[in-house]
């Protein structure tokens, strides 16, 4: 199985790489290797690698700065995942796994979250 991991140098990205099962072909990219807010780079990278799964561990995690840098937070945490999802649609049977935290959802329930699900952050 071909797996593309974004945000490979972050805490979650590193943990994902440590958990890769044997036999998986992994392409783990840091922000310097793939800026997920760059539409052309996202399309090219996903088309070239043709992964079965894209795991997005890239995130703007400076929560305190997000209020003073809303454009940067929006580009990485909203536009970037949208670009990844659109690019994954071009690969037959490919899936995008989007990582979230309790800053967005409360962790309750067992069904996968949808982009239009109501949020319920525990950290408010």
Number of domains: 1
What is the first-to-last residue Cα distance? Answer: 39 Å
Instruction: Give the name of the CATH architecture.
Output: 3-Layer(aba) Sandwich
- Tally of individual helices: 4
Global geometry: globular
- In CATH, the homologous superfamily goes by the name NAD(P)-binding Rossmann-like Domain
Q: How much strand content do the residues show?
A: 5-15%
Would you state the CATH class?
Alpha Beta
Question: Biggest sheet, in brief?
Answer: 4 strands, parallel
Q: What is the name of the CATH topology? A: Rossmann fold
Q: Percent range for helical residues?
A: 25-40%
Order of helices and strands: EHEHEHHE
Overall radius of gyration: 14 Å
Point out poorly predicted stretches.
Answer: none
> Please, what is the average pLDDT?
90
Please give the order of strands in the largest beta sheet.
Answer: 2-1-3-4
Class computed from helices, strands and strand pairing: alpha/beta
Number of strands: 4
């Amino acid at each position: 199985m071909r797996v593309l991991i974004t945000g490979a140098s972050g805490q979650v990205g590193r943990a994902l790489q440590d958990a890769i099962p044997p036999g998986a072909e992994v392409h783990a990219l840091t922000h310097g290797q793939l800026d997920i807010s760059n539409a052309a780079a996202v399309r090219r990278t996903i088309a070239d690698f043709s992964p079965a799964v894209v795991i997005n561990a890239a995130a703007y995690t400076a929560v305190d700065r997000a209020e003073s840098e809303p454009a940067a937070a929006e580009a990485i945490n909203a536009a970037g995942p949208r670009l990844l999802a659109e690019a994954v649609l071009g690969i037959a049977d490919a899936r995008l796994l989007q990582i979230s935290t309790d800053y967005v959802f409360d962790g309750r329930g067992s069904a996968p979250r949808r982009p239009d699900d109501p949020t319920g952050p525990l950290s408010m």
